[in-house]
Amino acid sequence: MEHVPPPAVPARVAPRPRDVLELLKPVTWFPPMWAFMCGVVSSGVPLADRWGLLIAGMMLAGPLLCGNSQAINDWFDRHVDAINEPQRPIPSGRIPGRWGLGIAIVGSIIGIAVGFVIGPVVGWASVLGVAMAWAYSAPPLRFKADGWLGPLVCAAAYEGVSWFTGAAVMAGGVPDSRIIWVLCMYALGAHGIMVLNDFKAVKGDAQSGVNSLPVQLGERNAAEIACWTMALPQVVVIILLARWGLAWPSAMVAFSLAMQVVLMQRVLAAPAANAPFYNATGTTLYVLGMLTSAFGLSVIV
User: Fold this and answer.
1) What pTM was computed for the model?
2) Fewer beta carbons under 10 A from the terminal one: N or C of the chain?
3) Ramachandran angles phi, psi of 91, nearest 5°
């Protein structure tokens, strides 16, 4: 009997909802949503009748802006992902054609629109966040290709803009200058966290011309820079909180930093192998320090 091959599976013309959700990487929404909540807490404004604004702001920080930034990144990184993560929705073909680009463009428009519905300050913060997302991933700027600027832009968007947005939602305008000082320090420190994330893609980055710090400087040097970058801004936060009369929050952040320094020793011993360990432990201490600082600020602003 003649063998008849099975019919070819037709190429997909539109993505499935679950593939779009995977493209938006829900696991990445936590950092900006946490920073947004820190902004809400730091404002010192009672929630009262602002629950609707709070929910809208959480959606803006997480799925709308952060999720959309993942779509932008995956579209412009599809060739890198074909090496590092070929199972991702775009390189695997589960999101076919130019659907990835279309999702990124529509998501940007929706995010900015929702920001302006919440308020003008939040709207312009959303414009800044979207602009940073495109500048990070897309040519000609493509800050991601620079091991110094890429993590800085990403950290500023994830931590700084999100914290600012949370405080602005509650305050109804530009937050207190002390809030801005602290959020800038934590955004700067998050540069180191982003560098640690680069260790998982060293091979693909090297092959595709992405000059992450581990590629440029080697694993040990990049890990040292990441640790110093995380630690020094927290020292500034400790000093600021103490100067503002927030002795207990200052002491708690100092204790958190001391624990992080202990954990950093393991990262420095084997950066690539232990970066995920630090992200699960030291980064947790880092973000708890953010929340502690936010509660302290809520008393004095």
Assistant:
1) 0.90
2) N
3) -65, -25
